[in-house]
Design a protein that fits this description.
Layout (H helix, E strand, L loop, with lengths): L1 H24 L3 H17 L2 H18 L6 H17 L3 E3 L6 E3 L9 E3 L5 E3 L4 E2 L4 E3 L22 E3 L4 E2 L4 E3 L2 E3 L4 E2 L4 E2 L2 E3 L3 E4 L4 E5 L9
Parallel strand pairs: 1-3, 2-4, 3-6, 4-7, 5-8, 6-9, 7-10, 8-11, 9-12, 10-13, 11-14
Antiparallel strand pairs: 14-15
C-alpha cells in the first residue's frame, strides 16, 4: 500500500510543481511533469526530514487501514500541493554541484537559481534574496554558431557577493561579478558583471549605481 501511495504522491507532486513553474520553463505542463518527476522523487527521498515525515504518514495509514478503507489518492492529493510549495521556494543548482557554492551564516536564498556552469558562487553572511533571483556564471561564445555555440567555459566567471547584501526579487546577476558588502540590488535589475561598490543601491537594466546607502558619501547624496 505504501508503494502505491508513494507512486501516486510522486505523480501529484510532479504535476503540482509543473503548474507552479510551467510558465517559466516549458509551455507543456505534461512535458514538465515528466521531466521533474524523477529528480523531485530522488531529491525528496534523500532528505531525512521528508523520510521522517513519510514514516509518520505510513504509520497513520497503517493505523487507519486497520479500522477503515484508506484512499491513497486522497492522501497524495493533500500532500502534493504542500510539498510542491516547498520545492518552489527551494534554491535550484544548475551546471555543477554544491562544491562550487559557498555561503556564509544566515544566508536566505529562497528559490534562487544558482548557475555554476562557468564559475563559482560565494555569498557572504547575512545576505538575503527575494523570489526568482538568478545568479548566472554560464555564458556562450557569440562568435560561434550551431553546435559550437552550445559550448561554454568551465571557469573564470565567478560571482562573489559580500555580507549583508539584499538582492530583490527577479534580479539577475551575471558573472564575473563582485558585489560589495551591504549593497542593495533593486527588483528586476540586471547586473552585467564588474565591481559593485559596498553600501550602494543599484537598479535598472543594465544595473547602475543610484545612490550610496551606507558610508561617508551617503550624507552628500
Amino acid at each position: 500500500m505504501l508503494s502505491a501511495f508513494k507512486n501516486r504522491l510522486i505523480d501529484r507532486l510532479a504535476a503540482a510543481v509543473a503548474h507552479r513553474l510551467g510558465d517559466r520553463l516549458v509551455p507543456s505542463l505534461d512535458v514538465l511533469a515528466d521531466r521533474v518527476a524523477g529528480p523531485v522523487a530522488d531529491r525528496l527521498w534523500q532528505q531525512p526530514a521528508f523520510r521522517a515525515r513519510l514514516g509518520e504518514v505510513e504509520r497513520t495509514v497503517r493505523e487507519r487501514a486497520a479500522t477503515e478503507q484508506v484512499d491513497d489518492e486522497a492522501w497524495a492529493d493533500r500532500l502534493a500541493p504542500l510539498l510542491a510549495q516547498r520545492l518552489a521556494t527551494t534554491p535550484v543548482l544548475f551546471g555543477g554541484d554544491w562544491s562550487r557554492v559557498e555561503t556564509g551564516e544566515n544566508v536566505h536564498l529562497v528559490n534562487t537559481l544558482l548557475n555554476v556552469s562557468s564559475g563559482r558562487i560565494s555569498i557572504g553572511e547575512q545576505t538575503f534574496f527575494g523570489h526568482n533571483v538568478s545568479l548566472i556564471t554560464g555564458t556562450h561564445d557569440l562568435a560561434t554558431v550551431m553546435a559550437d555555440r552550445h559550448d561554454y567555459p568551465r571557469d573564470g566567471r565567478d560571482i562573489v557577493i559580500g555580507k549583508g547584501v539584499w538582492i530583490a526579487s527577479n534580479a539577475i546577476v551575471l558573472g564575473p561579478c563582485t558585489i560589495g558588502d551591504h549593497a542593495v540590488i533593486a527588483a528586476g535589475a540586471v547586473v552585467t558583471g564588474g565591481q559593485l561598490e559596498s553600501g550602494c543601491l543599484y537598479a535598472g537594466v543594465p544595473a547602475k549605481r543610484v545612490r550610496t546607502l551606507i558610508g561617508e558619501e551617503s550624507a552628500d547624496d
